[in-house]
Here is the input.
Amino acid sequence: MPFTVTPATTRKEMVEFVRLPFSLYRDSPMWVPPLIRDDLETFDERRNPAFENAEGRFFIARQDGRPVGRIAAIISHAANQKYQTANLRFGWFECIEDYEVARALLDAACAWGRERGLTTVTGPLGFTDLDPEGMLIEGYDKLPTIAGVYNFPYYPQFLERYGFVKEIDYVEFLTKVPLETGIPDKLLRLAERVKERGGLRIMEYRNKKELIAKRGRELFLLLDEAFEEIYGAVPLSERQVQYYVRKYLSFVDLNLIKTVANEKGEMVGFMISIPNLSRAFQKAKGKLFPFGWWHILRALKKSDILDFYLAGIRKTYRGQGVDLLMTVSITQAALKRRFVAAESNHELETNTSVQAQWKYYNPTVIKRSRIFKKVIDPLP
Here is the structure.
């Protein structure tokens, strides 16, 4: 059947853009819906500070007036300046199982990039590393975390048919919390040795207000430094730092966030984990009200799976056991809360320093997602 691809420019069209996957994955038990209001904020130039250094164009494919596909085309000026590239990012790609729809959406995104003088296209990527990125290629039978991705198996097939090739992969790990055996004595001794040798300590917070007001900015600046060498990472502006402090630290459980300070009181490492909220988000169906908040609040207290969300270590402190110190501390919290398992969010397959945090607990790779790349074809 004939279809059209047009940019979404009005509020109503952006709502259609955001809501499209809710119909597409209606019968999928593995898709975890985002909060609609969060996605609308992400695409709002007035509210998302990422637009200070980026541009976006959002395309919708329609068939008989019904949305059947979407794609976000993003020009990250910050990334292109950092990496000296002329690259277009694409993200939030969804479509029905019809290659012609996928092709038309990719054509529209690439045409916009070509008009702006760009020569390559990579994705799925967002504005920053804190947006969804990667396309699932393994682990379709595993429920994603709320920061993870899920897509139908035909998605990567469509990209490869279009001419995309692998750029880099992310992997996700699952490990069991040692409820029966406890933390090995060897690790506890090593953690104490790390504290003594490096003058390090796990920081304590009386409440979230203290964490946000006194350490929130420092944490995200450290994240910016820790991610500097990571593939595709974009430096955060001061406004973005404040934006993410409010967005991510307002709901954390203080027992499940671990920060390490040196003798001067400077933060040298952090690890943020949260109870798994995937089933709660499925029940919320994209909305906090009237009952979505209740499902999420209940999962924060009752979930028995722990998700690792973000982690970073100052460059000058890498290889000094900071990762071990945080892992032991957060495992102690997991044992107290009686979590049965822990899952990482996606980690670059080449990021051995982050993966080393899991080595003490015999991790299993359960998912793999991919960033694809392609040269933007010139006009004939």
Summary: The longest strand covers residues 165-176. The two ends are 27 Å apart (CA to CA). The chain has two domains: 4-170+370-375, 176-368. The chain is about 35% helix and 25% strand.
